[in-house]
Amino acid sequence: MSPWGWFLLQTLCLLPTGAAPRRGAPASANCELKPQQSELNSFLWTIKRDPPSYFFGTIHVPYTRVWDFIPDNSKEAFQQSSIVYFELDLTDPYTISALTSCQMLPQGENLQDVLPRDIYCRLKRHLEYVKLMMPSWMTPDQRGKGLYADYLFNAIAGNWERKRPVWVMLMVNSLTEVDIKSRGVPVLDLYLAQEAERLRKQTGAVEKVEEQCHPLNGLNFSQVIFALNQTLLQQESLRAGSLQIPYTTEDLIKHYNCGDLSSVIFSHDSSQVPNFINATLPPQERVTAQEIDSYFRQELIYKRNERMGKRVKALLEEFPDKGFFFAFGAGHFMGNNTVLDVLRREGYEGDE
Predict the structure, then answer these.
(1) Read out DSSP for 216-276?
(2) For the chain, what is the total number of helices (H) and then of strands (E)?
(3) Tens of pLDDT, residues 149-192
(4) Where is average pLDDT lowest: 6-15, 79-88, 310-319?
(5) 69: closest CA among 42, 87, 94?
(6) Pick from 319, 295, 257: which is nearest to 57 by CA?
């Protein structure tokens, strides 16, 4: 999973996972063809060997929104595998501290010193609005679990003036009413990591924090300012009620629960970076948006797929008698140059 998916991990870890998800027939996912539960969500791939190993595609949403739609064969593959690997080691405190330090401006610098004055003022005004609104955004269920708005705001946005602009952009993107309502329930990756620990499985990671984090800090200053300005414009339009976001978290969940393997929105979930390409942008700004999209696609999807695939191969070779379950963002298995393609190139056979 990508770093900015985990930079709010302490928020997600606030509460125990609580009761098991509800049983019985899942609620309708409103899929076009209304398939049976057993045919839904085919984000499981088998690596043919003895014992078999598996790839499983996740998305970064509360596990309770998708768990009932994940078919039994995926859950059985998880249960049967003795070793579970993730993108990052989600249960290691070092992961959190390394992500936190990666987000910070150099010692002695503040956002006010580096941002254009008008953007800084708009950012400050927007965060004041979010803080004011947050109590009304929270659900009775969250309040019942002891989550308080001030605590949640500080957990997500505390120390924002010391963060690099690119991380502030991602933070603003996640400070929406829909996202706030989902806090306090572990996202799917974290839930699987907690389950693996509970079941005393061996766990590990195929990436280091720095490998996920440094590409974000590699955007040049004008690209970062463009991205932050676009994010603020989008949030300001949402506040004014004049904008509909083309892809929402609800769309992502529906595509996932319906087993839609072709959807473009998974790549943005796996890179955790918003799509800035917009038909209404002036030509020069559209070029900037395309440069950012292309940079992130290369750095946060393709290069990582290559590295992750090679590390998976090394693990399979080092432990030929072990069954692995690799849980990575679904976007790493779709499109071109996927993790699966890397393994196939290395001579491994697999099926869906």
Answers:
(1) HHTS-HHHHHHHHHHHHHHHHHHHHT----SS-HHHHHHHHHTT-TT-THHHHHHHT----
(2) 18, 6
(3) 998 999 899 899 999 999 999 999 889 888 898 888 899 999 99
(4) 6-15
(5) 42
(6) 257
Query: What's the pLDDT at 12?
Result: 29
Neighbour-count burial of 199, counting CB atoms closer than 10 A to its CB (0-12 exposed, 13-18 middle, 19+ buried): exposed
Burial of 152-165, coded b for 16+ CB within 10 Å and e otherwise, reads bbebbbeebbbbbb
Task: Say if residue 217's pLDDT is above 70.
Answer: yes
Per residue in 27-46, pLDDT tens? 445 676 455 554 545 799 99
Question: Alpha-carbon distance 172 to 341, whole Å?
Answer: 34
Paired with 183 in beta bridges are none
CB under 8 Å to 345, separation ≥6 — which residues? none
Residue carrying structure tokens 């790493």: 332
Could you give phi then psi for residue 98, rounded to 5 degrees? -70, -40
- Residue 279 C-alpha from the chain's centroid: 26
Q: In degrees rounded to 5, what are phi and psi of residue 326?
A: -100, 115
CA angle 176, 190, 219 (to 5 degrees): 60
Q: What is the pLDDT of residue 239?
A: 85
DSSP codes joined into one string, 112-174: HHHS-HHHHHHHHHHHHHHHHHHHHHS-HHHHHTT--HHHHHHHHHTTGGGB-HHHHHHHHHH
Contact of 329 with 295, CB cutoff 8 Å: no
Residue 13 in this model has a pLDDT that exceeds 50: no
- 104 DSSP assignment: B
pLDDT of res. 267: 60
Phi then psi for 314, rounded to 5 degrees?
A: -60, -40
What's the pTM?
Answer: 0.84
Confidence at residue 86, expressed as pLDDT on a 0 to 100 scale: 97
Q: Which of 281, 332, 334 is nearest to 311 (CA)?
A: 332
Please give the structure tokens belonging to residue 299. Answer: 């750095």
